[in-house]
Write a structure and sequence with these properties.
Blueprint: E1 5-9, H1 16-19, E2 28-31, H2 48-53, H3 55-66, H4 70-84, H5 88-106, E3 111-113, H6 121-124, E4 132-134, E5 138-142, E6 145-150, H7 166-176, E7 181-184, H8 191-194, E8 195-196, E9 201-202, H9 207-216, E10 220-223, E11 233-236, E12 239-243, H10 247-250, E13 254-257
């Protein structure tokens, strides 16, 4: 397809209203994951955590994590979950499912999706609709080009729900082979793509993605995950590496004409 217009979003984090319009004017929409909003560091009243425990407790939790006091943050979280009564996993799953029901209902078609590190892949099958294509370690031909998708994140001290070990992640990258467009949630392991200038920390990137880019030189490498990167783009050989932006904040997709 000549002159194909592709809209790309990542880090939707509960923004169903904007997601509904993200495919307007596009031939295809690509979503690079993190649909869920567990907690909003800007607005402490938004997300699953404050929904269950209130904004004041969300502020306490965020303060501990921001200060690097992760053991105390986990202790607070455990105390709050215990206070709900019953099985905490049931409370969490109900809240997650409510968000997914709204988000997938809003997601336009056609759309090609992969998982983010805060997503819960086992639940997606209950909400995808006709025209939603979920890929992880797999490729799809779109407009005559081969797009490869790698979902999830790598292990971190934050212990987000969809972190996989380096070997498993590298195997998913290797399974793609040569592609024209490499789509992932996390960036390749390039320091300037990984540093978040607002959070003032490095996020985790993938050496396997970086190696694949160097060896196979896709036209584009598209990713998200780092909300405010030091550099949103760079070139590795002929590959244009692009952070498509924090969709929850931007509310507009990244547009590529291919």
């Amino acid at each position: 397809m000549l002159g194909m217009r592709v809209h790309v979003v990542s880090d939707v984090h509960g923004r169903a209203d904007a997601l509904a319009k993200a495919g307007d004017g596009a031939d295809v929409l690509i979503c690079l994951g993190d649909l869920l909003l567990f907690i909003d560091y800007e607005d402490h009243s938004q997300g699953i955590f404050p929904q269950l425990f209130g904004a004041e407790n969300a502020t306490r939790y965020i303060g501990l994590r921001t200060a690097g006091r992760f053991d105390e943050a986990r202790a607070l979280s455990a105390e709050l979950w215990a206070g709900l009564g019953g099985d905490p996993r049931e409370h969490l799953e109900r809240a997650v499912r409510a968000q997914y029901a709204e988000l997938f209902a809003a997601l336009p078609t056609p759309a090609y999706l992969t998982y983010g590190n805060v997503d819960v892949p086992r639940l997606w099958a209950d909400y995808v609709r006709d025209g939603h294509h979920v890929l992880d370690g797999r490729t799809a031909e779109i407009g005559g080009l081969v797009f490869g998708f790698v979902g999830g994140g790598l292990p971190t001290r934050y212990r987000t729900p969809n972190e996989v070990d380096e070997e498993e992640y590298a195997a998913k990258v290797a399974a793609l082979g040569r592609v024209d467009v490499l789509c992932s949630h996390i960036p390749p392991a390039v320091p300037e793509l990984l540093y978040d200038v607002v959070a003032r920390r490095y996020e985790r990137g993938s050496e396997a993605l970086l190696e694949a880019i160097r060896e196979t030189q896709p036209r584009y490498a598209l990713f998200g995950h780092v909300h405010q990167p030091l550099k949103p783009r760079t070139r590795i050989g002929r590959t244009e590496c692009l952070n498509v932006g924090h969709f929850r904040a931007r509310r507009t997709p990244y547009v590529i004409e291919i």
